[in-house]
């Protein structure tokens, strides 16, 4: 807790400073666990939280929540005899102060000493970063220390403050758990950890505020068509089952008693597996195991969360297993069944190192090689605590839509962003819209290149486009002629050359010769067919494929994407889900990473080659190519093969199931990209699904915080998005009928307000219960 020593010295040791620390933005709520109708009442819609010294009384401090009035409100309240402008709480152990998370926003929670015994105050510190939250919490504990011991907290150690961290018995409990303990005698499995205790990597404490427990219906409802008791069981474990309630924004228990979670094989031999939840009356939850479930595992809480699609709704469910052992066994069985479903063969037939690779991809707690905590925490805190000193560019910017007069009837299908000329290009049918990047960081319609056609005058709709030769050319793929590429002179707006590649080899994917080749006069590029990798050189006569730099595989690999590093090394993905790493074209891959089973839609790599992000329909797969042990430790997988027993541990970047429930549509990611720029380090990953642009904080992801993403919703469907070249803030977004730019800081943390469709179209009750197979 004393990680901010210099900052504490500034704000704590000045006895003349009335205010110790302040959080400038948040909301204050009163939480009444026993009152179902108004369990969470908003007291101040906008408020400031301050730790203040008590005048003329040493070693005493107050927590002060001050209401912030909107424009015009102050005048309206001047005529009132009594106003409620601030609430003051003497800081002491009795407050049982602790922190939590609500809708991914940090919160501070404490007892209402003037209210009922179970009433709580909650301050939601909207937009506050993690270092600032930790600093504020540390100041609270220091204030408690000074009041208790009547002495300065300047020389305290972390261990001196541990006594003030609110806890009950031997484990920390959320207020939800404490309140829920009054609801009745619930049967619990041995070593049970209440779902209200789950940390933020699965379910946030404060999103599981005390909820009314649903009662089991007295009469048996419709059961699945086939009783699971008659089917082969892969694994069976005890636990508790919860569902996300959209109205009260929290998980609630579907059954108070212990349930049995099973994985059964619906049709033996066909790899058709189902997740079944049963109670003493029989099966009441059933869901077919597939990647569309969006399964997410959390070892810290021995839990699985997933989504269930039902009649246009996407509900969120959570299963907490009774013990660590039960969790490990259930997770392994689930991963094996999912793999068999995707591959159509038995898991035991996979090689041992491939099996380990598959199982490791489901692990959430992660420690990356050589990733150190950065030293920016104090700077972040000081910036947030002194918002007036922030630069003007931190202010919210409005987005300007660049609506083009391009032909109607078609929709935007592709986006490519310029490297040299401050232009973006959007494919729409057989037309390409040209958009300029203005000085105010917006995009403006510039021109339309109409009626794309071959040199022979035959019109076509480009299937894939890539800028080339310092943005003076654009290479086009024509779906009607897969054995050729077409070169368009951008200044003339006309296709001027056809590059015939090979009469027996199709060009399914293209990539630059290296990560930044498009900023140079480099003429060659990389091509891939479904089972071959080759170099294309338009300067040679006849077929443009370089015969000496060509590698074909006998099997049908179904290559689905290729990406290059700054030094020209290649990462190639396939529809089967495997990834190959090459140091050069024409040779065997140095590393072949086995498939998880989901088709890879596209792939990107950092300039150094250290990190790869591969996109599947429902998750992004992040891979660290650094070899961590063995003879070639310290090399990358592009240069040397991984030891068989030390393959990298792939990490899944997923949307949390409760967020998907608010989005209320299936996940279908566009190809994810790192921000890129010569001499820049990648610090973000951007993708899209449906109406949402999503960006992961790559620095936090490397530290193991896999769900640190922000989001922006649009009225139209997002076709493709990517960072402006050389800029890690500006994102160019192509909607189906629009093009615009957005600053990454204008993306928001996913909450009910930033995600949800109108509540009238959402339902909290899921058809997963008692649904037939």
Overview of the structural elements:
The two termini are 52 Å apart. Helix 3 (130-149) packs across helix 8 (377-385). This protein is 13% helix and 33% strand. It is globular and about 90 Å long. Strands 8, 9, 10, 11, 12, 13, 14 and 15 form an 8-stranded antiparallel β-sheet that branches. A 7-stranded antiparallel β-sheet has the order 4-3-2-1-7-6-5, with helices on one face. Strand 32 and strand 33 form a beta hairpin. It is built from 11 helices and 42 strands. The chain has 773 residues and is mainly β. Residues 1-164 form the Vid27 N-terminal domain. One of its GO terms (cellular component) is cytoplasm. This is VID27 cytoplasmic protein-domain-containing protein. Residues 179-188 have a biased composition (Basic residues). Residues 177-231, 364-414 are annotated as: Disordered.
Question: Helices, strands, pairings?
Answer:
Layout: H1 5-12, E1 19-31, E2 40-53, E3 61-67, H2 73-77, E4 86-90, E5 98-102, E6 105-111, E7 120-124, H3 130-149, H4 158-161, H5 175-180, E8 233-245, E9 250-253, E10 259-265, E11 273-279, E12 282-288, E13 296-298, E14 303-310, E15 313-321, H6 324-343, H7 352-360, H8 377-385, E16 412-417, E17 423-428, E18 431-437, E19 443-449, E20 464-468, E21 473-477, E22 484-489, E23 494-500, E24 509-512, E25 525-528, E26 532-536, E27 545-552, E28 559-564, E29 570-574, E30 579-582, E31 591-593, E32 602-605, E33 611-615, E34 620-624, E35 651-653, H9 657-663, E36 673-674, E37 684-689, E38 692-697, H10 698-702, E39 709-713, E40 718-723, E41 730-735, E42 738-743, H11 752-755
Antiparallel strand pairs: 1-2, 1-7, 2-3, 3-4, 5-6, 6-7, 8-9, 8-10, 8-15, 10-11, 11-12, 13-14, 14-15, 16-17, 17-18, 18-19, 20-21, 21-22, 22-23, 24-25, 25-26, 26-27, 28-29, 29-30, 30-31, 32-33, 33-34, 34-35, 36-37, 37-38, 38-39, 40-41, 41-42
């Amino acid at each position: 807790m004393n990680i901010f020593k210099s900052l504490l010295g500034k704000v704590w040791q000045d006895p003349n400073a009335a205010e110790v620390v302040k959080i400038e933005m948040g909301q204050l709520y009163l939480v009444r666990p026993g009152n179902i109708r108004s369990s969470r009442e908003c007291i101040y819609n906008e408020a400031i939280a301050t730790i203040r010294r008590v005048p003329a009384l040493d070693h005493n401090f107050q927590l002060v929540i001050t209401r912030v009035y909107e424009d015009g409100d102050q005048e309206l309240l001047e005529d009132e005899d009594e106003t409620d402008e601030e609430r003051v709480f003497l800081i002491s152990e009795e407050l049982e102060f602790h922190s939590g998370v609500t809708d991914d926003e940090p919160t501070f929670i404490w007892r209402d000493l003037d209210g009922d015994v179970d009433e709580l105050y909650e301050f939601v510190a909207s937009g506050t970063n993690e270092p600032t939250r930790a600093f504020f919490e540390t100041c609270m504990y220091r204030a408690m220390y000074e009041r208790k011991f009547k002495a300065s907290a300047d020389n305290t150690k972390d261990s001196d403050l541990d006594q003030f961290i609110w806890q009950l018995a031997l484990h920390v409990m959320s207020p939800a758990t404490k309140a829920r303990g009054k609801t009745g005698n619930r049967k619990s499995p041995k070593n049970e950890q209440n779902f209200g205790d789950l940390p933020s990597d699965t379910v946030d404490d404060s999103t599981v505020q005390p909820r009314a427990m649903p009662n089991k219906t007295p009469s048996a409802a419709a059961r699945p068509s086939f009783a699971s008791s008659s089917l082969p069981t892969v694994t069976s474990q005890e636990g508790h089952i919860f569902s996300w309630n959209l109205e009260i924004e929290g998980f609630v228990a579907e059954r108070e008693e212990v349930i049995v979670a099973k994985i059964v094989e619906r049709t033996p031999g066909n790899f058709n597996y189902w997740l079944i939840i049963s109670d003493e009356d029989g099966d009441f939850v059933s869901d077919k195991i597939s990647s569309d479930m969006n399964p997410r595992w959390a070892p810290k809480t021995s839990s699985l969360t997933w989504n269930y699609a039902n009649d246009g709704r996407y509900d969120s469910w959570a299963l907490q297993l009774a013990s660590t052992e039960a969790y490990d066994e259930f997770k392994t069985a689930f991963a094996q069944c999912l793999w068999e479903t995707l591959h159509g063969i038995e898991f035991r037939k996979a090689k041992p190192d491939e099996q380990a690779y598959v199982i490791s991809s489901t692990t959430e707690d992660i420690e990356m090689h050589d990733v150190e905590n950065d030293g920016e925490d104090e700077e972040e805190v000081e910036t947030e605590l002194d918002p007036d000193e922030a630069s003007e560019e931190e202010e919210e910017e409005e987005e300007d839509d660049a609506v083009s007069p391009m032909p109607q009837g078609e929709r935007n299908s592709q986006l490519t962003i310029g490297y040299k000329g401050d232009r973006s290009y959007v494919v729409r049918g057989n037309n390409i819209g040209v958009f300029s990047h203005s000085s105010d960081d917006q995009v403006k319609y510039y021109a339309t290149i109409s009626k794309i056609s071959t040199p022979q005058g035959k019109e076509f709709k480009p299937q894939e486009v890539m800028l080339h030769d310092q943005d003076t050319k654009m290479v086009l793929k024509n779906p009607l002629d897969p054995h050729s590429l077409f070169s368009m002179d951008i200044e003339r707006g006309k296709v001027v050359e056809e590059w015939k590649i090979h009469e027996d080899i199709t060009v399914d994917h293209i990539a630059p010769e290296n990560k930044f080749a498009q900023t140079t006069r480099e003429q060659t590029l990389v091509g891939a067919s479904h089972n071959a990798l080759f170099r294309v050189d338009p300067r040679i006569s006849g077929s443009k494929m370089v015969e000496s730099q060509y590698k074909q595989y006998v099997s049908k690999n179904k290559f689905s994407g290729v990406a290059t590093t700054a030094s020209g090394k290649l990462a190639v993905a396939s529809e089967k889900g495997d990834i190959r790493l090459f140091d050069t074209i024409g040779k065997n891959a140095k590393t072949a990473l086995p498939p998880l089973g989901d088709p890879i839609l596209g792939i990107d790599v950092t300039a150094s080659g250290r990190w790869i992000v591969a996109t599947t329909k429902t998750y992004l797969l992040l891979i660290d190519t650094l070899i961590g042990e063995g003879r070639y430790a310290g090399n990358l997988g592009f240069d040397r093969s991984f030891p068989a027993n030390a393959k990298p541990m792939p990490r899944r970047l997923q949307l949390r199931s409760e967020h998907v429930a608010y989005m209320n549509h299936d996940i279908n990611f566009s190809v994810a990209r790192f921000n890129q720029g010569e001499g820049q380090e990648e610090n973000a990953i951007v993708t899209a699904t449906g109406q949402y642009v999503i960006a992961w904080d790559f620095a936090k992801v490397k530290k193991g915080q896999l769900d640190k993403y922000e989001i922006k919703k649009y009225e139209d469907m997002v076709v493709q998005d990517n960072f402006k070249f050389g800029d890690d803030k500006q994102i160019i977004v192509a909607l189906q009928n629009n093009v615009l730019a957005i600053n990454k800081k204008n993306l928001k943390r996913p909450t009910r307000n930033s995600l949800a469709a109108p509540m009238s179209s959402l339902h909290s009750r899921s058809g997963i219960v008692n649904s037939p197979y």
